[in-house]
Amino acid sequence: MEFFRIHKDIPFMRHALVFNGVSLVTFVAAVFFLFWNGLNLSIEFTGGTLVEVNYAQTADLEKIRNALTKAGNNDTAVQNFGSSHDVLIRLPLKADQPTAKAGEAVMAALDADAPGATLRRVEFVGPQVGRELAENGALALLLVVIGIVVYLAFRFEWRFSVAAIVANLHDVIIILGFFAFFRWEFSLSVLAAVLAVLGYSVNESVVVFDRVRETFKKSRGLTTPQVIDHAITRTISRTIITHGSTQMMVLSMLVFGGETLHNFALALTIGICFGIYSSVLVASPLVMWLGVSRDQFVKPKRKIEGANEDGAVV
Amino acid sequence: MNRYPLWKYVTVVVALLIGFVYTLPNFFGESPAVQVSSVKATLKVDPQTLDRVESTLKAASLTNDGLFLDPVGVKVRFHDADSQLKARDVLEKEFNPDPENAQYVVALNLLSSSPQWLTSLSALPMYLGLDLRGGVHFLLQVDMQGALTKRLDALSADLRGFLRDKNIRHAGITREGERLVVRFRDTETRDRARVALSESQPDLQLTDQGAGDDLKLLATMRPEAIKRIQDFALKQNMTTLHNRINELGVAEPVIQQQGADRIVVQLPGVQDTAKAKDILGRTATLEIRMVDDTPGALEAAQAGQVPFGTELYVERGGKPLLVKKQVMLTGERLTDAQPGFDSQSQEPAVHLTLDSAGARIFKDVTRENVGKRMAILLIEKGKGEVITAPVIRTEIGGGRVQISGRMSSVEANDTALLLRAGSLAAPMEIIEERTIGPSLGADNIKKGFNSTLWGFAAIAVFMASYYLLFGVVSVLSLAANLLFLIALLSLLQATLTLPGIAAIALTLGMAIDANVLINERVREELRNGMTPAAAITAGYERAFGTILDSNVTTLIAGVALLIFGSGPVRGFAVVHCLGILTSLFSSVVVSRSLVNLIYGGRRRLVSLSIGQVWKPKTPTAATTATVK
């Protein structure tokens, strides 16, 4: 079986401007929604209490809301979690109730007015923890970016490392943009997924760049766009098969992993799809704009002192 | 050319074998068990306890699947949960006849049911996190500022007493934020005070301030002293938590320091958070009272006629003791208790330090009661326990008290611990709490397992149909990767959480990349007209550089998550990083050795089973024309 029967190198670079334009539009849209809607941060970041309860019968959300309001909890968010029997209740932090008493209060309120609930899980996060997590998340992102830039600059060339990281940060922003647009909950595991995707899709650029370098070294007389086209064409089958395989795994998580892994898998899915696009069609034009050329990879022949113009000596 | 030296095959086989052995315990599951351990440091669980457990169970005609003693306590395995519960009740009755005064913890536990030879190789099943087994997780923040303020307040009282003793007149000592301010009227007194203080209080940094008749001496804590106080506060709080959690009867509680001022408490299997929180937040108090040794009073009390104003207690040795109800001193006045030795007799002793107010009271009490006994009681849940009841030999001033005599150094240690454990050194606050019900834990395991299984199956089917034999080799090496990863997680006893399972799945999904790279490269070399044997070699060699690069970049992300991640992210990062390392080995070395084994021995290799190698037609002028 062979899915990719490509006769000639596909002239990707001819449309470089179009690809970059598409990226720019998605990117700007993502940034816009990030500012307009903001991220729907989970209680891990904002602090607060989360209670998951299970009812033997279909849960009556309205009754639960009323029970909680009656008990003095006004800002609660009550929603189904995975199935109609499971209910997730979110409570914001309260100034007058700083300790972890909220979970018990919820259960007491439910027992009184919406009986039959069994407690599945309670999570309470204090305000200081949330702030720290957000800071640590940002630091982790920074460390990944620096680490990858340094490694690629060391292994290849600064042009490659800049192109790769710009392309992949653009993925990160787009994932965040999706989460902002759909108001999906952004939790710690989503953050983990985002960072994992960052490391993963940099792979993609690495594979293409590896080929670019190899082609530069092997074949003379090709222009830079031709070299890049050749490298992308030669690796495209691998790119799609690999991402397809990873996506199969992620899809399986999306289907079987339940509500807890849902957003994690969702972030990975977006990351993988945009990862293919950006690392191939964004990073490569960037490298081209940054002025990569054959001279950067082929060591110039050593000049021998006293040689004539042809480099001949006796 | 495609042959591995024998040692490489041996390495692969040995690695697979080790991987298999350490993965094995995860398949045996767990059997219900009951664990008996001691609450008190003085009460050791020894082979006699083991015999006692055995005979108790025999008397109740409960059959068990074996019992043994380990550093934690006696553990008994049962066939089913029903006999486990029955045995718990029987043992509870036998070991704690008085439930109000529990000596032992009899807790339900789960033990790996893997055979003995595996356990002796320290091959244990993976350590499941709370989100998979259910339980409570608390993150407690110790109020270090509170600990410091408490210490400074005690110090200011100390300074007052000290300056009075030295006959140095000051115009007042106050605490202003994190420093003490001592006022003086003239420079000469201040100089004297500074000299005296710098000798007696090495922890304080002294600076002069002010002019005229408003002269000040500012005393601040040295950084190393602050660090010591904070360390002490944290350690003491952890000890206290330990003692309290023992009461909950949790089989494997985790109490760990996290960062400079935080304590993590994990109680697997506990569902009643309200009770757990109540116990964690409880305050115990220490009281010093006098012993009533009026002749005949003790005998009357034992006969049921407790004299008015006294209470009957039992000493730790078992002797009855009549203690007056009037409290002389409470634990708030006690700033430290340390085990040590008497400077003259070299007997083990406990050294107590009281603050200055406490020292004054103690001086008065001891002066009036030379020759009598006093009792130090730990009051918890309104119930007292006599820690020690020493005889007062002389008047004791200065706030430094030594309790010695007929004490082993172990006992001195325990007494000091109990004295300190009475109260928390600094207030604590719960800043994070997670409760996971047992059904949710089981659900999470099932979901994680299913997603990995189906994802793996999908990849296997695709790889085998697209790359044929090479695809099967890739799947086998992916399976080897899974084996190594689980073996490594079991061996390191790293905590496996739901994000950890997600990381296993994701790592497998990413690890296939290396094999796809190799297979595509081999196909490409074949397409370029290489012989099959040469194509294998070239494919593996050329792909390796790329595989290494891509794994390093993924690893960078993994390590960043490991450094900055906490909680669920950390669980993800640990597995992710380990998985990248194992995938390097399995996708390159294991798959190559399989390929070599299959193709290396053939003399004349004509074709490879790697699926269709499609060749583009040579681009002649004619074909390019038609393509256009």
TrEMBL record, chain A:
It is a multi-pass membrane protein. GO terms for biological process: intracellular protein transmembrane transport; protein targeting; protein transport by the Sec complex. GO terms for cellular component: plasma membrane. Residues 116-291 form the Protein export membrane protein SecD/SecF C-terminal domain. GO terms for molecular function: protein-transporting ATPase activity. The chain crosses the membrane at residues 12-36, 137-154, 161-182, 188-209, 240-258, 264-292. Keywords: Cell membrane, Membrane, Protein transport, Translocation, Transmembrane, Transmembrane helix, Transport. It is found in: Cell membrane. The keyword Transmembrane helix applies. InterPro entries: SecD/SecF_arch_bac (IPR022813), SecD/SecF_bac (IPR022645), SecD/SecF_CS (IPR022646), SecD_SecF_C (IPR048634), SecD_SecF_C_bact (IPR055344), SecF_bac (IPR005665). Forms a complex with SecD. Part of the essential Sec protein translocation apparatus which comprises SecA, SecYEG and auxiliary proteins SecDF-YajC and YidC. Belongs to the SecD/SecF family. SecF subfamily. Part of the Sec protein translocase complex. Interacts with the SecYEG preprotein conducting channel. SecDF uses the proton motive force (PMF) to complete protein translocation after the ATP-dependent function of SecA. This is Protein-export membrane protein SecF. It comes from Rhodocyclus tenuis.
UniProtKB/TrEMBL annotation, chain B:
InterPro entries: SecD, SecD-TM, SecD/SecF_arch_bac, SecD/SecF_CS, SecD_1st, SecD_SecF_C, SecD_SecF_C_bact, SecDF_P1_head. The keyword Cell cycle does not apply. One of its GO terms (biological process) is protein transport by the Sec complex. Residues 427-597 form the Protein export membrane protein SecD/SecF C-terminal domain. One of its GO terms (cellular component) is plasma membrane. It is a multi-pass membrane protein. One of its GO terms (molecular function) is protein-transporting ATPase activity. The keyword Plastid does not apply. Pfam families: Sec_GG, SecD-TM1, SecD_1st, SecD_SecF_C, SecDF_P1_head. This is Protein translocase subunit SecD. Its main location: membrane. Residues 234-293 form the Protein translocase subunit SecDF P1 domain. The chain crosses the membrane at residues 6-24, 453-476, 482-512, 573-595. Residues 1-108 form the SecD export protein N-terminal TM domain. It is found in: Cell membrane. Belongs to the SecD/SecF family. SecD subfamily. Keywords: Cell inner membrane, Cell membrane, Membrane, Protein transport, Translocation, Transmembrane, Transmembrane helix, Transport. Part of the Sec protein translocase complex. Interacts with the SecYEG preprotein conducting channel. SecDF uses the proton motive force (PMF) to complete protein translocation after the ATP-dependent function of SecA. Residues 314-426 form the SecDF P1 head subdomain domain. Forms a complex with SecF. Part of the essential Sec protein translocation apparatus which comprises SecA, SecYEG and auxiliary proteins SecDF-YajC and YidC.
